[in-house]
Every structure is written in structure tokens, then in C-alpha cells.
Design goal:
single chain; mainly alpha
Length: 113
């Protein structure tokens, strides 16, 4: 019984790792990694910092999905810049990202806590 439980945990871990890698691959394909990385600021904030900022907010996924699709207005991104977490004061819209992909990306970013 203990062996089957171990296999279930290992299998679940592999599935989660595969999903995380798949969504990081999606971020790369859509050009997100030109301005962001998981751990460190590039032009935009690190994804872990974004996840931390939105942790516990009930509308986090919807908000991030909209930011991914439509970008952020100038004042919204300035907070990141003032905190030294971003080099640009805004994020441009991403016309090449579908709403479904934006939602996947938002979920992935929020999972990085």
C-alpha cells in the first residue's frame, strides 16, 4: 500500500512539473520571456513577484488575464517601476495571445508562489 501511495505522489509531482514547464514554454512562445523571467526582473517584474503581489486576491486570475491581453495603463505599472521591480512603467497589449492562453499564463504565474 505504501508503494502505491508513493507512486501516486511521484506521478502527481511529474504532472505538475510538466504543466509548469508547458506553461513556461507558452510564455516563451508568446514572447513574454523577452520582458519577464520567473525569478528576476528584466524589463518587467519577475513572475514570482507578480504572484506574491496578487496572492489571496479573489480577482487575481481575471486581473492578470486582462493585463496579459490588454496591457497595463501607464499609472498601474509605475508602482512596479518605483519599487525597482520593473524598468518600464507599463506593459503593452499582447495581440498574439488568445484569451484562453492568457488565462493559462495567468494561472501559471499565480502558481509560482
Amino acid at each position: 500500500m505504501k508503494t502505491s501511495s508513493l507512486f501516486l505522489w511521484v506521478g502527481a509531482g511529474l504532472l505538475l512539473a510538466g504543466a509548469a514547464q508547458a506553461d513556461e514554454a507558452l510564455a516563451k512562445t508568446k514572447g513574454c520571456l523577452a520582458c519577464h523571467t520567473v525569478e528576476t526582473k528584466v524589463l518587467g517584474p519577475a513572475y514570482r513577484a507578480v504572484a506574491k503581489k496578487y496572492k489571496g486576491k479573489k480577482d487575481a486570475e481575471a486581473t492578470l488575464t486582462q493585463h496579459i491581453l490588454k496591457g497595463t495603463p501607464m499609472p498601474a505599472g509605475m508602482g512596479w517601476q518605483k519599487e525597482g521591480q520593473a524598468s518600464l512603467p507599463f506593459m503593452p497589449a499582447n495581440a498574439s495571445v488568445s484569451p484562453a492562453d492568457a488565462s493559462k499564463l495567468a494561472k501559471w504565474i499565480l502558481s509560482l508562489q
